[in-house]
UniProtKB/TrEMBL annotation:
KW Cell membrane (keyword) present: no
Cofactors: Mg(2+)
Domain of life: Bacteria
UniProt keyword annotations, A-Z: Magnesium, Metal-binding, Molybdenum, Molybdenum cofactor biosynthesis, Transferase
Full protein name: Molybdopterin molybdenumtransferase
Keyword Metal-binding: yes
Enzyme category, top tier: transferase
Pfam families: MoCF_biosynth, MoeA_N
Organism: Aporhodopirellula aestuarii
Function: Catalyzes the insertion of molybdate into adenylated molybdopterin with the concomitant release of AMP.
Length: 420
């Protein structure tokens, strides 16, 4: 009997993401790097703004409908002017050529630029003052428009240069700047609360092993999840909370967190133990459970719920990750990060992982979706990192990410690869 709400992780994520809408916008934001655009960037001018040269060379016009193959290599042709980037183009005299530098404006009437190395240059003498050139044989091979970047060939004034939903990284920052903008409308940062639960957890800063009894462990999930959030520049520094296994305390913590954040991520307490309070608390605060348990390893007990915030009329996801460190880490990447991307307003929020081929497959077959730690072994290739199960965080430290195999799979791939 199939007792799972969804057969595969992708469907479960889609269902949880469905009611989510991007967070509010912020106008005139000046600190754009890493932010998600909430409106288009429109070109204020043609790009390029004029016909410009893509090479250092000589701008010429074929005077009659002749082919460049008819250029005479023995002719001494006077250089009648120079087109220097930052200055307007000189007039073109049709008995000569214009020396032009990369980025310089192509004078009206010129139909191509022939690169300097296809010429023999005679240094400037008194007359003509800019010297002369002769063509080398290669010049004969040029065609109309060669080495000219045409006005508006990249984009015309008034057209959309960037669309909303794009994350501003280096290239986008350059695009925005080239159209004269120093501010833009972006989505505000996503507010994330991370709540670790469990009485066995001690502070991760507990450095002395002597004073840490063996029934206590350091809270490694907290820095793991905090670091995963740092891969998203549009997420505000997450609020980190630790709550003991006390239902009242936990319920209040989740309610407070959901009121002040866009998403709440919990680890631990989602399974079937007497002290696993997350499922009951999620229901008690009025959140709708979308799934609890998926056909997945590790992370089978994972919980996904939607809290409808009456104050803001927004849907806020609650992701209950299993406490085991491997399950929590993979679950956060697979489930929480795409939801955060959607909340952030990222256009392509659905994970589009690269794929890898496995060097070797083991003999084991699983009847569940199987997230398996791998280490890259070459371009597009990976090897399995064999660990001792979902508690073996140490083996995860040797991995670059994980692949996801569907049930009963036993071939080398290609498999979707989710990197850390
Ligand atoms: N009877 C059943 N028991 C369990 C089932 C089941 O189906 N039936 N599922 C198992 C699976 S699979 C998982 S995964 C775990 C999930 O359990 P919980 O989410 O309730 O997590 P906890 O019990 O709180 O912790 C599990 C494990 O992880 C350690 N942990 C917890 N938090 C942290 C942290 N912040 N940093 C480091 N380590 C952490 C914790 O000490 C436990 O060892 O349930 C199975 N049981
Ligand atoms: O499914 Mo659990 O995450 O393996 O221990």
């Amino acid at each position: 009997m199939n007792h799972y709400a969804f057969d595969c992780p992708g469907d479960a994520i889609a269902a949880l993401a469905e009611p989510l809408t991007p967070v509010d916008v912020e106008h005139d934001c000046g600190n754009l790097l890493g932010r998600v655009l909430a409106g288009p960037i429109i070109a204020d001018r043609d790009n390029p703004a004029a016909d410009v040269s893509a090479m250092d060379g000589y701008a010429i016009a074929m005077r009659r409908p002749v082919e460049s193959s008819e250029l005479h290599c023995n002719d001494e042709i006077p250089v009648t002017g120079e087109s220097i980037p930052g200055s307007p183009a000189p007039d073109f005299a049709d008995f000569g050529v214009i020396r032009i530098f990369t980025g310089g404006m192509v004078p009206a009437g010129c139909d191509r630029v022939i690169q300097r190395e296809y010429t023999i240059e005679t240094p400037a003498a008194k007359s003509p003052p800019l010297g002369t050139i002769r063509w080398r044989a290669e010049a004969k091979l040029t065609r109309p428009a060669d080495n000219i970047r045409g006005r508006a060939e990249n984009i015309g004034a008034g057209e959309q240069a960037l669309s909303s939903g794009v994350v501003v990284r280096g290239p986008q920052a350059g695009v925005i700047a080239s159209f004269g903008l120093t501010t833009a409308t972006v989505h505000r940062l996503v507010r994330v609360a991370i709540i670790t639960t469990g009485d066995e957890l001690d502070d991760v800063n507990h450095t002395s092993n002597e004073s840490l009894p063996p029934w206590k462990i350091r809270n490694s999930n907290a820095p793991t999840l905090q670091s995963l959030m740092a891969t998203r520049p549009y997420v505000a520094s997450p609020t980190m909370l630790h709550v003991p296994d006390d239902p009242e305390h936990l319920q209040k913590a989740v309610l407070d967190a959901i009121a002040a954040h866009d998403i709440v991520i919990l680890t631990g307490g989602v399974s079937m133990g007497d002290h696993d309070y997350v499922p009951a608390i999620t229901a008690a605060i009025g959140a709708k459970t979308i799934f609890h348990k998926l056909p997945l390893r590790p992370g089978k007990p994972i919980l996904g719920a939607i809290y409808q915030d009456a104050d803001t009329s927004t849907a806020k996801p609650i992701v209950g990750l299993p406490g085991n460190p491997v399950s929590a880490t993979m679950g956060a990447v697979r489930f929480a990060l795409p939801l955060i991307d959607k909340l952030a307003g990222v256009m392509h929020w659905q994970a589009t992982p690269q794929s890898v081929m496995l060097d070797e497959i083991g003999p084991k077959i699983l009847h569940l979706h199987w997230m398996r730690a791998v280490r890259m072994s070459g371009p597009g290739r990976a090897e399995l990192v064999v660990g001792k199960g979902s508690g073996d965080l140490v083996s995860l430290g040797a991995s670059d990410g994980f692949i996801e195999m569907p049930p009963n799979a036993n071939h080398p791939g290609p498999w979707p690869f989710f990197s850390w």
